[in-house]
Specification:
Layout (H helix, E strand, L loop, with lengths): L2 H7 L15 E10 L2 E15 L7 E8 L2 E8 L5 E8 L1 E2 L19 E2 L5 H4 L2 H20 L3 H6 L1
Length: 154
Amino acid sequence: MNLNIQSLLRPFLKENIPDIRPGDTVRVYQRIKEGDKERIQLFEGIVIAEKHGTGITGTITVRRISSGVGVERIFPLHSPVIEKIEVVKRSKVRRAKLYYLRDAKGRKARLKAKVMGGAKHSQSPAAQIADIQKQATSEESPSTETPIEEKGKE
């Protein structure tokens, strides 16, 4: 792209866009204007396509199932109505476009979860809390138990 065009578009590019890939489950927060009121609407789904790169024209196609019907929305990455995008989960995929998910139902529509980082990051927050509680109780249990010999004397 021409340097003059790039310098004109630079102020409109967003800085806080995460690394989004096909197979990611994302939450897109979009500003909706209804009359004189403004609210933020959440759309959560699987990214089935990423097009036009990460530049000003970059878009993602997000799909979710709502009331048994597949709903797809195309979001421009640098649109001013997009408040923020969060990556909830990453999945292991072998395609750049996941259009086959449109026809897949049930078990065939599942994607394998990808491990994000170490063992601590691959668990859900509830599982992490449970592990911490187990470790705390296992460390306390030897010190709180009295030896067998002392029990017999009492």
